[in-house]
Each structure stands twice: as structure tokens, then as C-alpha cells.
Fold these 4 entries.
Entry 1:
Amino acid sequence: MNKKGLLIISAIVIVIFIVFISGKKSTTSGTTFKPVYIAGQEVVHRVDEIYQAQYAEELSERFKRLNKRGVFNGTVLYGENDQIVFEGAYGYRDFKKRDTMTIQSKFQLASVSKMFTAAAIMVLKEEGKLEYDDTITRFIPEFPYGTVTIRHLLNHRSGLSRYMSLADKHWNISTPIDNEDVIDLFVKYKPAPYFKPDHGFHYCNTNYALLASVVERITGLYFDEFMKLRIFDPLGMDSSFVYHLRNDSLIGYSVPVGVPGYRYRGWRPVKVGDYYLNGVMGDKGVYSTVEDLFKFSCALDDGSLISLQELEEAFKPGSPDYYRRKDNYGFGWRLKDDMDSTAYHFGWWKGFRTYFVRDMRHQRTLIVLTNTHKGTSSSVFWDIIKDEDRTSKLMGIYQSLN
């Protein structure tokens, strides 16, 4: 065989090897593979370093273009194997003041908050404070739906109706409402469930608001206090907190923390004010930065917050396969049907849109936080995670080194 043929074969071998080790640690199984170093560790690392530097530049240009087109205003972080490959901040945290966005800007996570609520429940499960199949009435005895379990809430299979609709109908929306108030509304009005527990799937914020209440009833702490004490502080998530309206009797003109959210009137961004439902925690309300969220992702990988064995529960499909359901749901994570070992969650609330994607097979993480209610399609972010040209790029780098 001639020299050129040997080079091609060698390149194929190294690329296959690199693709293999890019997913060498599997969070879902807790297994660590020990690859054989076919081409030498130095070559592998050099190829990987060059690729990541090139991809970081590519992502930088991509988000600059999106911002210039007016379809992206926020922060982004992309990481591989628990290392930050790229991060950037684009646009304004305050459009009127032209206050520039930074990596340290804190965003309302909207429904991305749910993964933290699920994590809190799993921490208490590991401490023996609850079981997933406990009924909610073990902890909230006055709750009028006695067969709903913790697992039903986590998997969105409780059938409970929306607390937001209940509050809009029966609450004075000029005053804040909190988690205990939500329980009282269900006790007083007993709205009809959508279906019997475990007889269907219905994504509903009620489930995660009630999970936060379970945390409060078990620990005697407010949910925001528990999150700071048991999750944010231990992980060094110093810029993260849960927003609440405790001790407030009136709704403020604006949210006094983090970056403001914006809606558009035509082409003009308008700041979104505070809202009475912001007093309910668990289904939303966490404020964080892309770097803090990456710390959380790394903690899931190394088992420092929740054991890897316990964490498997979070990534198990909670509902039977159903042809009309696009993706399944675990504990605070959606499970991507067409991507192996990929969990994600998106959020949308009062001028914020958030995206958190973890490809656990290849150890790729993408976190995107925005403070406008509209923007680029999520397909842009999926393209980043999938990186379908990766193999050919690695091949090109390897050949250039030889």
C-alpha cells in the first residue's frame, strides 16, 4: 500500500477514535470507558484542541450574525467534557440605557427552573425524607387529590389542572400569590382534574409548584432558602437564586433583580413588569448565569450533587411511548427521542426565553439565556449540539498535522 493510502487509513482510525472518546463518560449509566490510545494521546489532544478553538470562533461569528439580525439578545455557553469551549454575551441587558450584556448577567430561567426543583426532590430522596411513589398527602395532608404521587408530579402525569388559570379566576391579581396560597385555592375550589393520575401526560406548572411546596413542608425552609443552602452554595453557584415576592403586599413596577425581560411592540422592545404569579416558586423563578448553569451540569456529571445511580431516574422516560408525543419527560428534563442520551429543557416566561441542552453521550452542553420573548429558532441551537460536520472537520485537522 502506498504512503497516501496509509495516511488515509490512519486518518480514519484517529477520527473514529476521537469520536469514540468524545463520549467516553456516560452520565446515564455512570460508566467510564478506557479507550485504547491508537494514535497517541498527544495527537488526540492536539487535534481536539485545534478543533475546539476553531469551533469557538465559528460559534462566535454565528452569534454575532444573529445579534446583528436582531434575533438574539443574551448569553451563551457551549462546553465539552466539562470544559468551557465557548461563551459570549450579545446585545443589551437594558435596551433603554444601552447597558451592555455580560457573561455575569442573571436571567429568569422560566421553566428551566424545573430541573432544579427535581434535583431538590432527588436530594431529599437520597436522604430518606421521601419516596417517589409517596402520595402528596403524606406531606400536604389537606390537599384534596389523595392518589397523586411525587412521581406523578415529576413526570407531569398527575392530571391536575393549571394553578395559573385557577388564580386568574379566584385571586386578586394586584397582590402577590405564593405556594401556600396555591394549595389553599385547590383545597377551596377543588377544580376538576384533566384525567386520573397516571392516565396521561400533561405538562403543567402546577406539578412543580407543588413539588416546591413538598420541599418546604419536609424541611421547614422556604424553597428559595433550601435551594441556596443545599444546591447553589455547595456548587459555587454564587450568582443563582430563586426570586420570590414574600413580604410584598403589592406588585412592583419592575422586577428588582437580574436583567429585565422584554416584549416587542413592532420593532420596539418594551420592558416587562413584575407579575403576581412570580411569587410562586418551583415551576419557574430561578435566576442564574450561563457559567453557574454549567457548574450545575458538571455536578450532574461527577455525582457531587446527586449520586450517578440516583440520577438515572431523572433521565428515564416517565410516560409510555405514544406516536403523537414528540419527546418524553423524566424528572425535570425532556428526553430527546431522536438523539441518544440527550436531555433538555426550554423556558418561556414574561420576556425571557431559555435553553439548556445536555448531550450526555458525547458530553456536550449548550446553555442559552435570552431576555426577549422572541428570537431565533431553537433549530439553531440543536445544530450546534449535533455538529454534524464534526467528523470531517476532525479528519481535516488530522491530515493537516501530517
Note: The CA atoms of residues 112 and 198 lie 23 Å apart.
Entry 2:
Amino acid sequence: MRTYDIFLSICQTEVDGFLPSERQMFNSFFDQIRLSDQLGFGTAWVAETHLSCQVQKENPGAVIPHFRGEIGLNTDILQVAHKVFAQTKKINIGSAIRNIICNGGPIAHAEALRTFLTLHNLENSESRKIEIGFAAGRFPFSNTPYGFRPQSELEALAWDVIKNKYFQEGTEVFLRLLRGEKISSKDISDRYLTPQDFREPELWQKVKTLAGTSSQDRVLLPHHWNFEKVGVIPFETELKNLSLTIGSHDPETQILANQFLPVGVFNLSITPPAVIEETHARMKQNFHKDGGAWSRAKMPRTVMLFLDQDRGKAKAMAERAWKNYWTAMENTLDPKKVEMAVGNTIAGDAAEVKDLIAQKYHPEDRLMLWFDFNHHDNEAVQKSMRTFMEKVAQ
């Protein structure tokens, strides 16, 4: 059957001239978390962001120069999770999505997570899960201070391709240490550049020439993380209350992750249906054996939701939210982009929302409902949450 989670962005941006303080944002967040628990949502997924967007605007090449505020205020789901679990009874907590490249890289993240799980599991009856969605981060400026940037002329030439290879490397390091292996960088798989990695044959030829391997069909990459044999502690950590989901659309990376531990896959509300079904088919064949059979619940789907008893008002809220968002992100307003975004949004009264969800999603999909998109009215958000669970989810 279809299951319902909630997504909370803690996005501190200006909406209709109002910019909440950080304290206001976090107070609203915990209000909504407590209500989510009471209403019976399965997991509260929390956006995670690193380093200030506002400060980054002071540098050349600002990634979102017209955005006022911070994309998100949660920088560490593990600290947030302890506080959430202390205030709730049933709900799980998830990261959407934890960046395993910044803040020390994959080794540090594996150790931090094992420490969290050790503390979380001290109560033998504890069964609530920490659901770690992980990826390489949305914005490069969160990673470059930690050395995740081209280190050679070759890397600079092909960084768009190479950074994905290094995320695969980071994924392998993270998962192998997380499951308790003691490894060095010498134990990590080698990775190569091949012609299939490049859309432009001319760029591939330049890469081969620069690497001095013009007569070969692949170029060996150096390891990005170089380290002697390590083991992350605590060693006695149990992984029973851990669930993992990777934020990558690359089939090779999804399959790679499942060589080491059971890892689900994130997909967004705008992902084409064909890609969704292809991913389910692929994961049925490649999901790690320790995770049991693959199910649709292992691929959470983000749903942008605008719910009001007045259908017209709900649709107007969706259009206004997207207009504000695109103006903030790009300082432009493309009507076609807004129209497409609104078309991918679920908006209406309870009856219409119920019908739209039934039309758009499989009966066994796991939906991650986003009520607070470009919305700072805490009471209104909570009202929508109640209405959904009482009149739509039933």
C-alpha cells in the first residue's frame, strides 16, 4: 500500500517580503516534526545544506546570486535526529540529502554515523530508524573548501566527468567503513575514464593526449582519498536501525552502492515515469541481498503539495510559490518553466488531491510530502498536514 513521509526544508528565504529568523525557522520545524509524529507520518526527511549561500554570493561565480536567505539551515542531521527522537514517539528521521564529500569526506561521515547509531541503540527497545540519504551535494562551493576540486590539469579539463567518478570512490569508502571493514585506499577499486564517459569525442582525445595514453581506450584515475589502513569506531555498532538511500540517477553508481550494503534510490517529483520504472526494474536485479526483496517503498518520491478547501486558492498558492522560487533563484520569470513546475505539483482540495495522487503515483509508492515549499505560515502548514492525513491518506 502507499505510504506517506514528510519533507521539511527549513529554507530561510524571503516570502512576500517576510524573512524569518533562524530561531523562528527551527521553532516551526520542531512544531511540524511533533505534529508529523502525532499524525502518523512514517519518516520526516530533512533537507541538509552546508556553508552560507549569502556569504558565497560575495565571491566570483555566485551560484544563486539573486537568492535572499539560506537554502537550508540544517547542517547536521545526526545532531537534529537526537533532538527529534527526544521529542517524538514513533517517527523516523531522514536526511535529504547528506553530503558525504564535505566536512571531512566519506571517512568522517562513516565514523560520525557509527557513533550516532551506537548512542541511538543504547536503549535495547529502540526501533526507530535514521534514514541516511547521501550524495555529493547540490552546490560545488560546499565541497571546494575541503579539497574536492581539480588537482591537476587533466582533472581541470574533465572535472564534470571526474567528479562523478570520485563520488563513486567516496561512496565505496563510506559504505565499506560504515559496515565495519578495516581498509586503506589501496583496497579501493580503481576507476577509469573511457570514451563512453564523454559526449564530445574531441574532449576524450584531449584527455588521452594529456594523460599520455593516446593508444589506449581508458585512462586510470588516481585515488582522490589516499589513506593508510583505518577502521572507524565504535567497532560494536549495530546497523539494525539504519536505512540508506543514494541521491544519484547514475545506474552504475546505484549498482555500485549495493555491492556493499542495501541502498535505496532517491528520485524527484519531476523525474519522468519511464526513468522511475527503469530504476525499479534495475534495482530488483541489483539490490543488496541483505536488504531483502526490492520494493517501491525503497525509492521515496518527492511531492510538492498545496492543499486548501478552495481549489482555486490552492492552485494560486502553487503558482505564486513557484514564481517566487524561480525569481529568487534566477532573477527571471520564465512562464513556461513556472507552468511546467506547477504541472508537476499536486494542488487542490482534499478530494482533488486524493484523485491526483491516485492518477500520478503507483499504489505502492512511498511519497515524501513537501508542505512548506516557499511557505512560512507555520499554522497554515500544520493545517494542511492535518487535512491531508485525515481526509486524503485515509
Note: The longest strand covers residues 92-99.
Entry 3:
Amino acid sequence: MRCLLSLSGLAALAAMAAAALFSAGVYASADGLALPAGFSNQPGSRDYTRLLQTVQRPSKPAPEASGQRTATGPLGTHTGDDSCRWANDRECDEPGIGTGACEAGTDFSDCWRIITGLEDDSCQWANDGECDEPGIGTGACTQGTDRTDCGEMTGLRFRNDSCEFAFNGVCEEPGIGTGRCAERTDRADCFGRERPLTINDHFFGHDDRILMDTGVFPWSVIGRIRFESGGQCTASLVAPNVLATAAHCVSDEGRIRPAGRFETGDGLPGGPRSARVVDVLLDPLWDDAQFSAGDDLDGTDWALLRIDTPLGDELGYLHPSGLAEASRDRAEDVTLRQAGYSWDTGDNLSGNESCRVLEAMNDNTMSHDCDTTRGDSGSPFMIEEDGRWRVVAVDSNFRRNPDGPMIYIAARADRFAPLVEDFAQGRIGQGGLRPRGPGKPEALKPPKNR
């Protein structure tokens, strides 16, 4: 569940390869097909994830030149062209029916089927048992061309829970509710909490998230890091001047780029608090390429970030603990809390009040059943015992599961908890935010004379 998306100029290639993965369940390379840089000929468990990122990239292709076209269907007639810069990216971007990134009538190819009601199964990946439309599926098909596989999920298109009144049990959208929310921003309350399990949205049939009060501890010490290199992830205070997040959030194509600004939610008296990232500590074994290609380094997907203002002196902080240390019970019996800045809840902190550890693995990972999605990377998994809040893991990614739904993985705190104090004091760390090249994590261990 990587929150920083890779860019690629090979859209058609990515679509072909991604679809081969999704339909066959493995990564397949056609004879003579040149793979993008960094991809393996071997069936790595997350090769398909990286290919998906090239399909659903945020930097969209330039439109193809075309004149006015018209289509007529059960819902009426639509006339337009592909003059919008976001045209021909498989996602409808016209207002009212799509994302709204384009003016009406300027994203014809991506929108005409859903506007006129002529949705069909014309995509080459249709009828393979998996929804391939953007937003609600893999993104390998154009909107409206995988009707059978997407089924009732099409009702969730372009809807989210970004309204501040979301998850309160009352439909607040105009026309169908109270009107306190903007259109399409109160999805759970107006259209139900049933959710498909997709490549981006990790729901287990039902969205159990709620919005958290960021003026109240522990939710007040969970915030967002906006990176100078682009993108954002969730992070939490684990010492007065230290944040915990995911390593893949600060790792970009083999380079470590942690520079950015951390900001809490706006529920605190006087507004949000913020601080600048000034240092980073990664696992000595962290390697971005190896992490992306397989499951071997999932347990190293954590990062500690030192900030220039000790916000924890005012707000408090969470206590990083190994999973066994944090509870005397079996890991599978532990009740978890989790919260992050999900892509679909806007500026609101959303999370789970009661989810579970499914399995604690020997590679410093654990699987869980918390409802998470893009933007939650780096978010804390917490246990509360006798008023003390402990971080036992940070949200990482997912693994393919041949026997059922994907397995959602968090990197446990066992590896970084013993390092927080020394990092907070400046005894270990990179010593600054100079960019580092691939293969040079330079993460340090505690001093031997400790």
C-alpha cells in the first residue's frame, strides 16, 4: 500500500502486464516484451503492484487529437472530444459523473459509456472475475468497459467519505440527505459500508472505520508528513522529537528522500502543530528494490524521523514496543487500534477502534484485518493497556494470497523500538538530510558501549 506512486512513460505496456498478472495471478512477460526498469522476469509477489502504479499514475498522458464525437444511449446523448489534458487515461474526468478534473465534453473517450448508459464488457480484461476499472478496481480497463466484473461496485465510483460528518450514521449529502456534506462525500452513510476488496482499498467486506477526534490523545499525535519530493504518508510521535512511519514513504527509486513537514490534525486548541523533518533512521537491511520485488524485507519497512520541534513535550507521544512486550496474551487475541490519513477521508483522520492481529510472523511482520487504504502507509497499530498507548507496528503493504484475499502486512516495532532513545538524542542517525544513493541506507545500530 505504497503512498508514493512511481511514474512511467510505458502506459500501454503497464496495462498489458498488469492485466496479465491480475487475470493469471502471476507476473507473466510476453515473448519479446521489454520489461520496465526494475521489474523482474521472476514472479515476485509485488511486481504487479509496481506495474499497477504505472497504470494509475498521477501524471496523466497528453490527449490524442480528435474532433467532436457523439454517442446516444438509454440515458441520453453525449457530445464531446478528447481535448482535456486528462483524456484517454481510462478514468472519466468530466464533472458530475467523473472526477471533475476536465470541463464537460472534453473527456469523451473515457466518459461516454457511463454518461449515455451504454456500459459494456468491451475491455480485453472483462469477464475475468476481477473488476478492472479505475478507482474501484485494478485500473487496466477504461471506465464502463468491465461491466460484469465490476457489477454493483460501479455505484461507488467517484464517491468518498471526505465530509467532516462522514461515518455518523446520517446521510448528509444534498438531495438525498441533510445537505451538510458536498455531493459524493458521505459515501458510507448514504450508500452503505459494504466495500469490495480491491488492489488499493483493503476492506474486508465492510468498512468499519470511524473519524477520530484529533484534539484527543492518542489521535492528536498522529499526523501527516508532506514530503518535498511529493506525496504524503501517515506518521505518529513515538518520542518528543521522533516520528515513526514506513520506510517506503521516504524511499524513492533507490534514493532516500525524507525531507518534509509533519503536521497534526486540526482538532487541537489553537490549530494543528507542525515541525520539519531533520534526520532519518532506517533498518540496515532496507532496500527499496528488493522490498518491491518480493516479501523478504517487509519487516524492514519502518523509518524513524527526527523533527526540529519536540512536539511530544506538549502533546505526549506513543510508546514503541515489541508485540510480545506489549501484551501478555497471544498475538491473535490482541485488540488493535489504528488510524491514518486515508485518501478517501480528505483531511479527516480515520481508523479502526477494534481490529486484530491475524498472525505474527518471524520476519518482524504481522498480518491484520484493519480496514486500510492508500495514505495509511506508516500509520500506527496501537495497543492500550492501563492507560498507556503502545505502538506495536506501522502499516506497510500487502502480499498475494493464493488461497484467498490478499494478506495485509505491518512492520512490527520490535526492530525499531530499542533504537528510538538513541535516535532522539542524536547518537545514531544519518546526521542530516543529504540525499543518499541506492544501496547506502547507512542506518546505524546503538553504540556498543551503551
Note: The CA atoms of residues 19 and 302 lie 30 Å apart.
Entry 4:
Amino acid sequence: MKYIKYGKHVADPFANLSAEELLQMLQDFLLDSGFLDSYSAFYPMGSEDTLEQLRRALMQALEQEGMIPDDLLKEMLSEGENSKLSELLDRLLERLAEEGYITIEPPVAERGPLARPRAGQVGKSNAQARFEITDKALDFLGFKTLKDLLGSLGKSSFGRHDTRELATGVESDGSSRQYEFGDTLNLDANATLLSAIQRHGLRLPLDLDYNDLHVRQCEYQSSCATVLMLDCSHSMILYGEDRFTPAKRVALALSHLIRTQYPGDSLHMVLFHDSAEEIPPNALARVKVGPYYTNTCEGLRLAERILTRQRKDMRQIVMITDGKPSAVTLPDGRIYKNAFGLDPLVVSETLQEVARCRQSGIMINTFMLASDYSLVNFVQKVTEICHGKAYFTTPYTLGQYLLMDYMQKKTKHIH
């Protein structure tokens, strides 16, 4: 005789959550800079994260939002991985993978040419599986960060940013002049018709001549090559404040802004700590604070080599740091380190590299996440040498200052 077993139906409380909402809830975990695990090894490219860590982060995020019913939490405490909540969390992770926001790799011991996690097995046989966020996820996080930063400035939307007010469309308030061969035919109809009427009077049909043509002068959008230098020394997560995660978010926002609004520009990212290295934008999310010292000179040297290969109207270095230079690479390759005060050797080598950037036509804008008295004089010297700017800001206002500074330099009047 056939029996049918009935159980209590538990509605899915997360059915209306989209993958984008899940990703936004997980952004603190995905962009972690090492601040939450200050006792781990400090290396720029941290170890891969496991699905179990992602599941715990997702559960914590849902719990903070008050979206997990109390009965599901009690059931999980008693049944563990066999609970309904554990199954629902696995479904959410599968949704992120299916929509292309994360990629999942099985544990090393199980990897083979065709090894892939099977549907419905995310949280069981693949508990130690690794995951990585995709370019699609990075692009989404960059877009959300950019939108939030622009929204905090009172602008909820953005297009092609030609002015400080972030207005979209074609500028129409520039002065007009006579058309010259080679000009873009941005015709000023009013001035053109008025010129013809002044010559022949108001009669139909109007007799338009070549000299009657007037064009409107607009803003010229110059191309720009930017190297974003991120200080990932140990001090970026010390003193009870995470300064590196906001810097990473601003880097993602700037990357998205350039890719979508200024495709003629280029952006390169350089990390500097005991030494310096260039990283691709898609590796930014995995970067954590690195070795202890701050080799600003080596970072500037690498940035200069990158920018000298660029053929752009403007070349600039945007440096985000929170401390004084405390290391320098010697001619024989050894790294001289001194974290106590402003070492004369380190400062002189760093300022010489700033002067070389100035000679190459490279501007340096410094965004300081600290305002120690000993740093003010050093930053002033840097800005005087390279004719750049210095912003003493905080992790909360860094994005607003940096994005506004970038977009203000994007336009100049052609008279």
C-alpha cells in the first residue's frame, strides 16, 4: 500500500530577493580589506574565500536585515546543515552562481578536468569549495558605489559629465563664432539666420552664404590617463578604523565611471606597501592590506613608467594614503625601512621622484586619510613641486572629493 507523507509547508522568506540585492548585502564581505581579521597574514593577494565563509556572511547579512524568521533560526540551532534555513541559503548562493555574479570551484582534492559543483550540492559535498566574484559582480558594485556617491552630492542620475553640476546632454550656452573649415558642424541656427538677414534683409527665400554659418563653441572633453595609487600598508586598518575598504570602493566607482562615461580615458591601479605592483581592475576586490611599510617612492616610480607610455592630453596620479613614506628601494634592490618619523633619505628620494613626474608633465593629486601635523609639511612640498592638489579627507568623504576632482578636470573651454 502506497503512503504519502505530509510535512509542514515553510514559505521561502527570500523568494522576492534578487541577485543584485543579495550582492549589495554582501558587499562588505566581498570587498573586505582585512580589517575584520586583523591577525591574518598581511599580503596584498589574500587567500581564496570558501563557500562556507560566504554562507556565514550571507546569513549574518540577512539576520541584520531582520529577514530570517525566528522559527528557522531555532530549527537551524538544533538541526544544523540539515535545517530548512541551510537549504534556503544554498539556493541563494546557487542563484548568484547561475546569474554570473560568482564562480564556484570544488575543493582542491576533488578538482579534475570536468569537476564542477552540482546543483543542489553547494552546501553539502562542496562545503570547502572556493568561490570568486566575477567581472559582472565588480561592475555592479562599482555602479552602485558610483550612484551612491553621486547621490550624496544631490545628483541621483548621471550621464556624460561636462560640468560640476553633472548635467547631461549637449551644452547650449557657449558663445558662437563663424564656421571655419574643419570645425564640427554644431550649427547655431539663430546666429546663422541673423547673419543672413543682416546682409540681405528679411525676405524669403533667405540667401545663405558660407560666411553666414556660425557654430556654437562647446566644452572640449580631453582624454586623460590616470594611475590610481592605493596605499595598502598595515596602517590602513589600524587605529580602530578601516580606511582601505572605502579606497577600494572609490577605485571600483572610478573604474566604472571611466569605462561607461569616458571610454577614451585609461585607468591603471598601483598598490604600494614595502614595494609596489600594478594590478588589473578585476583583481581589486581580492586585495587586502599588504606588508607594513609605505614605499611611496616606488609607487610613484611605477606610476610614472606606466604613464609615460600613454598618449593622452592629461596624465595624472591619484594617490590615496594615510601615512608618511617609511620605505624606499635602494639602487641595489634592497628596501630601506624606517617607520619612526620622516626619515631624511626616504623623504628626499620620494621628493626627487615627485620632481621627475613633474618634468614628465604628470600631475599628482594626493588624498590624505589622516591629518597628522608631521605630514602636512611633506604633502605641501609634494603639491608645490608637481603643481597638484592635496585633500585632507576621511574615509566617509573620500569618494565625493575624488570623483568631483576627476570630473572637474575633464573639461576645458576652447575660445
Note: The radius of gyration is 28 Å.
